[in-house]
Amino acid sequence: MSDDEAAQLATHYRLLRQWGRRTNLTGLRTPEAILARHFMEPMAAVDLLQGEGTLLDIGSGNGFPAIPLAILHPGTRLVLVEASEKKSAFLWAVLRELGLKAAQVVTRRACRRADLGDFLPVRWLTFRGVKIAEPLSGTGPDLLLPGGRMLAFLAAGDVEALAADPPTGLRWTESRPLPTSPDDVVAVFEPSR
Known about the structure:
The chain is of the alpha/beta class. It is built from five helices and seven strands; from the N terminus they run ααβαβαβββαββ. The chain has one domain (3-191): 3-Layer(aba) Sandwich (Rossmann fold). Strands 3-2-1-4-5-7-6 form a seven-stranded mixed sheet, sandwiched between helices. The mean pLDDT is 88.
């Protein structure tokens, strides 16, 4: 990690703590828990991103895992989809302060795949803590470009159901334990064709 990347991650942390005083951005309260869950987990998965492309994050909330992934993998264009206007304002503030010019926040509720159609397909799709079955269901454009990956940050117990019935056009390829959360994994899905 470069000094610039470390400084950007520190800025994201500082803004999370400042904004968290007036907006509920995380249920985690201690600095150790925030650093372990929100920062270390994306660090453990950044090697799953190869090349350049667009990362679409659904239910972006406080910007995790997407913003750290983009910081640590330059050349990533971010599309952060968040239904809450307050959380979207926070995300815009983070992007502005970090100078992530190839990024945007989209304030909308994604209830089905068609709601994301103007951004699909993408190189990478991420989510954490989102009930994803409905937003990725139904007909619509392909989710991923050839060679793309969906990174699902999930409780280990939720992987089996998603792997057995993945979103149309995707197949489960692996699950990687997250070193700071023994009950959580990043499940990797790739295009099935």
